[in-house]
Amino acid sequence: MQRRRSSIENEPDKQRICDLMESFHNLGWCSGSGGGCSTRSSLTGSRNILVAPSGVQKEMMSVDDIIILDSTSNVIENCNDLKPSACLSIFNEIYLNSPSCSAIIHSHSSVFVKLTNLFLGAEFKCQYFEMIKGVNGHENDEVLVIPIIDNTRTEEELASSVAACVKIYPRSPAVLVRNHGIYVWGKSWSNAKVHAECIDYLATVCLDMERTGLATIEGGVCKPNSEFGRKNEKPRVWRVPEVMVEPGGIGYTEDGVNVIPGRPLKFEDESILEKLGVTYDRLSGREDDQKLDDIKVRDEYKNFDIVELDGGKMEKDKYEGFMTKFFETHYHEDDEVRYILSGGGYFDCRYESAWYRIQVKVGDCICIPEFLWHRFVCDTGRKVRAMRLFKDAPKWEALTDVDQPERKERKE
Ligand SMILES: CSCCC(=O)/C(O)=C/O
């Protein structure tokens, strides 16, 4: 039976929703009538849910505006006869599919509109940021994965996609909706609030840092360029049998490899680098890294210069000209040493009738030995800035299989 006056015992829960909505409005998470909030009743044994109404200014709600429903959406209290939030069907799906969920926040923070246009696939992923620890069950060196779904005209249409994400991504307490916002939840109202704050922070940091070159998206994961957590990462190497290499090259997906349906490529362990004679050091990505000075002394590099390619900024013909040159199979009569300062890509090295695709990213200082057939391609970020280190005067003389057929068998 529906009550006309707010029951005393529910007032603290109702007041909390009013307070949360006011603070979310002040944060810009629910301006222009967007956004919403729901919690489970804190009364012992109750499965009721409380939901903010639609049509009331988010920062001006009073306890009598908050609607209480039972677990099958029958209205228990609706003192001001208001319409429940349009998100109710989505909230219900989240409660249903995430049994520990006790509170849900729907934010229209503009950062998520921007983020879902930087991450155009089905997931936002980031790693090595301290705030990842604020998301239950995650460490700061783990990859946080939050699913992204496309927006629809109505909330009802979104509900089934949100439900599917909650089931498929049990570790994620959130679903992003492209060009729209986020649904984020937790086992209590405060846990949901912490999740919402951490994810908003991570999205803001990833966007700003990617835009200013302080973070890089590698294999779909946004990572800060600095060293923490990354120093133990080894370059990833894939083996690509020559028969699988198409005339245009290996090609690559977002993950760096060309996955021929039904024939996923094999990850190699790093011992392959030894066979290829490829060596590497992991640095910070900074030009003034002390370790770089040590390497210069250790390996007697007396000269360096910077090579920079940016498919988003350079003239198309110029960028493609460089890419064609670097992607043509070639070798040099000296070691090729490259220290990646931003962006990333893949060195493909040919050895015993196969290609080995070695991923390089910020901080990698890689040495491709003299006479080893290789080529380079940027990753999907289409940019790389690298320091080239030389023992003698800087030079870039590539010997290609076309120019030097008699050398073709060297180092194979
Ligand atoms: C990662 S630096 C750009 C590629 C390059 O300098 C080279 O020599 C490719 O073989």
Short overview:
The chain is an alpha+beta fold. It has helices at 11-26, 88-97, 110-118, 155-168, 189-211, 271-276, 290-299, 316-327, and strands at 36-40, 49-51, 67-69, 75-77, 103-107, 123-126, 144-149, 174-177, 181-186, 215-218, 221-224, 237-241, 266-268, 279-282, 303-310, 330-331, 336-351, 354-361, 364-368, 374-378, 383-390, 399-400. Ligand L3FJYLFB binds next to strand 17 and strand 21.
Tell me about this structure.
By secondary structure, this protein is of the alpha+beta class. The chain contains eight helices and 22 strands. The protein has helices at residues 11-26, 88-97, 110-118, 155-168, 189-211, 271-276, 290-299, 316-327; strands at 36-40, 49-51, 67-69, 75-77, 103-107, 123-126, 144-149, 174-177, 181-186, 215-218, 221-224, 237-241, 266-268, 279-282, 303-310, 330-331, 336-351, 354-361, 364-368, 374-378, 383-390, 399-400. Helix 2 (88-97) runs parallel beside helix 4. The termini are far apart. It binds ligand L3FJYLFB. Ligand L3FJYLFB binds next to strand 17 and strand 21.
Query: How many angstroms separate the termini?
Result: 81 Å
**Cofactors, ions and other ligands in the entry:** the ligand CSCCC(=O)/C(O)=C/O
Low-confidence stretches: 252-264, 405-412
- Let me know the number of strands: 22
Structural class: alpha+beta
Q: What does the radius of gyration come to?
A: 27 Å
Provide the spatial order of strands within the biggest beta sheet: 4-3-2-1-5-9-8-7-6-11-10
